[in-house]
Amino acid sequence: MKASALRSIKSTLTSGSCHLLRRGYATESVPDRKVAVLGAAGGIGQPLALLMKLNPLVSKLALYDIAGTPGVAADVGHINTRSEVAGYMGEEQLGQALEGSDVVIIPAGVPRKPGMTRDDLFNINAGIVKSLCTAIAKYCPNALVNMISNPVNSTVPIAAEIFKKAGTYDEKKLFGVTTLDVVRAKTFYAGKAKVPVAEVNVPVVGGHAGITILPLFSQATPKSNLSDEVITALTKRTQDGGTEVVEAKAGKGSATLSMAYAGAIFADACLKGLNGVPDVVECSFVQSTVTELPFFASKVRLGKNGVEEVLGLGTSL
Ligand SMILES: NC(=O)C1=CN([C@@H]2O[C@H](COP(=O)(O)OP(=O)(O)OC[C@H]3O[C@@H](n4cnc5c(N)ncnc54)[C@H](O)[C@@H]3O)[C@@H](O)[C@H]2O)C=CC1
Ligand SMILES: O=C([O-])CC(=O)C(=O)O
């Protein structure tokens, strides 16, 4: 090889690593973290894989599905960000995908069509979640599990039972992802209250289906003087947000892009908690004593072991 060609390669490599250091990706400041996405070739899985590839807290990204992951992994893997990407396809590669994972995100499963409720997905998705959680218990029992597959109100308790049976259950590490309800509540509230959406906070408690989704607009910030009538309409729109998208997609599935965004926000919060960032608080459907229900969504403080504290319902402003 000519000396000039070698010099040019060297300079490219050096400027590449400087670039990583400048952007705060240096390994000494950011710990290595492996994230696995199960169902990574799906409607949510693909944009979620993209968003996790953009997250500088991730060093390894494992993309698993029953089909299609080599293509998704090759595509996302060309993006010049920190994480190494690998695709895994078929049950025989699930163990490899999971091994060493710090966070496992599960958007594997069937979505709704118009006229269906999330409960109609129970039979098929319960089976999928059961097999995936059995593998998690075996290959990465200490990982934080972010459950997206519906019905979340049931898939989370199912996962808990699978982990209990395997002897690996840790209530601090199992999360139903309800972030999309918060994302919607923030968007709809900002629109009506005419406040900058980036400043809005709205806790959403309860569960993730119809009337179990309870946005607490009385605690929304920045505060506004919306009438009871408007608050009732905002509540209903948030509760029916999933159905609004299912109907608009007219048979082509449910929310995927907004869910990928919400899933990426929640996974990022989990990673920050694991890395010891203080005061990381998100709403999530977790094992809870806030009400008499065994699982309930409320604000949760995230830390080095997952749930650090399940926060209560709060008080109206
Ligand atoms: N928690 C929430 O707020 C939300 C949850 N969802 C739920 O997320 C789930 C996925 O939705 P979409 O991505 O739109 O569906 P999709 O059908 O586009 O993708 C699902 C993916 O899961 C894969 N899959 C099926 N069985 C699998 C298995 N055993 N192991 C690994 N992968 C498997 C499929 O091959 C497919 O690629 C649905 O259950 C949906 O209801 C959707 C939106 C919001
Ligand atoms: O409505 C659905 O089936 C998907 C979902 O959970 C949501 O968009 O909130």
Automatic annotation (TrEMBL):
<feature type="domain" description="Lactate/malate dehydrogenase C-terminal">
    <location>
        <begin position="178"/>
        <end position="312"/>
    </location>
</feature>
<comment type="similarity">
    <text>Belongs to the LDH/MDH superfamily. MDH type 1 family.</text>
</comment>
<feature type="binding site">
    <location>
        <position position="259"/>
    </location>
    <ligand>
        <name>NAD(+)</name>
    </ligand>
</feature>
<feature type="binding site">
    <location>
        <position position="150"/>
    </location>
    <ligand>
        <name>substrate</name>
    </ligand>
</feature>
<feature type="binding site">
    <location>
        <begin position="39"/>
        <end position="45"/>
    </location>
    <ligand>
        <name>NAD(+)</name>
    </ligand>
</feature>
<feature type="active site" description="Proton acceptor">
    <location>
        <position position="208"/>
    </location>
</feature>
<feature type="binding site">
    <location>
        <position position="125"/>
    </location>
    <ligand>
        <name>NAD(+)</name>
    </ligand>
</feature>
<dbReference type="InterPro" id="IPR022383">
    <property type="entry name" value="Lactate/malate_DH_C"/>
</dbReference>
<dbReference type="InterPro" id="IPR001236">
    <property type="entry name" value="Lactate/malate_DH_N"/>
</dbReference>
<dbReference type="InterPro" id="IPR001252">
    <property type="entry name" value="Malate_DH_AS"/>
</dbReference>
<keyword id="KW-0560">Oxidoreductase</keyword>
<feature type="binding site">
    <location>
        <position position="184"/>
    </location>
    <ligand>
        <name>substrate</name>
    </ligand>
</feature>
<feature type="binding site">
    <location>
        <begin position="148"/>
        <end position="150"/>
    </location>
    <ligand>
        <name>NAD(+)</name>
    </ligand>
</feature>
<dbReference type="GO" id="GO:0030060">
    <property type="term" value="F:L-malate dehydrogenase (NAD+) activity"/>
</dbReference>
<dbReference type="InterPro" id="IPR010097">
    <property type="entry name" value="Malate_DH_type1"/>
</dbReference>
<dbReference type="InterPro" id="IPR015955">
    <property type="entry name" value="Lactate_DH/Glyco_Ohase_4_C"/>
</dbReference>
<keyword id="KW-0816">Tricarboxylic acid cycle</keyword>
<dbReference type="GO" id="GO:0006108">
    <property type="term" value="P:malate metabolic process"/>
</dbReference>
<dbReference type="InterPro" id="IPR036291">
    <property type="entry name" value="NAD(P)-bd_dom_sf"/>
</dbReference>
<keyword id="KW-0809">Transit peptide</keyword>
<dbReference type="Pfam" id="PF00056">
    <property type="entry name" value="Ldh_1_N"/>
</dbReference>
<feature type="binding site">
    <location>
        <position position="65"/>
    </location>
    <ligand>
        <name>NAD(+)</name>
    </ligand>
</feature>
<feature type="domain" description="Lactate/malate dehydrogenase N-terminal">
    <location>
        <begin position="34"/>
        <end position="176"/>
    </location>
</feature>
<dbReference type="InterPro" id="IPR001557">
    <property type="entry name" value="L-lactate/malate_DH"/>
</dbReference>
<dbReference type="GO" id="GO:0006099">
    <property type="term" value="P:tricarboxylic acid cycle"/>
</dbReference>
<dbReference type="GO" id="GO:0005759">
    <property type="term" value="C:mitochondrial matrix"/>
</dbReference>
<protein>
    <recommendedName>
        <fullName>Malate dehydrogenase</fullName>
        <ecNumber>1.1.1.37</ecNumber>
    </recommendedName>
</protein>
<dbReference type="Pfam" id="PF02866">
    <property type="entry name" value="Ldh_1_C"/>
</dbReference>
<feature type="binding site">
    <location>
        <position position="112"/>
    </location>
    <ligand>
        <name>substrate</name>
    </ligand>
</feature>
<comment type="subunit">
    <text>Homodimer.</text>
</comment>
<keyword id="KW-0520">NAD</keyword>
<feature type="binding site">
    <location>
        <position position="118"/>
    </location>
    <ligand>
        <name>substrate</name>
    </ligand>
</feature>
<keyword id="KW-0496">Mitochondrion</keyword>
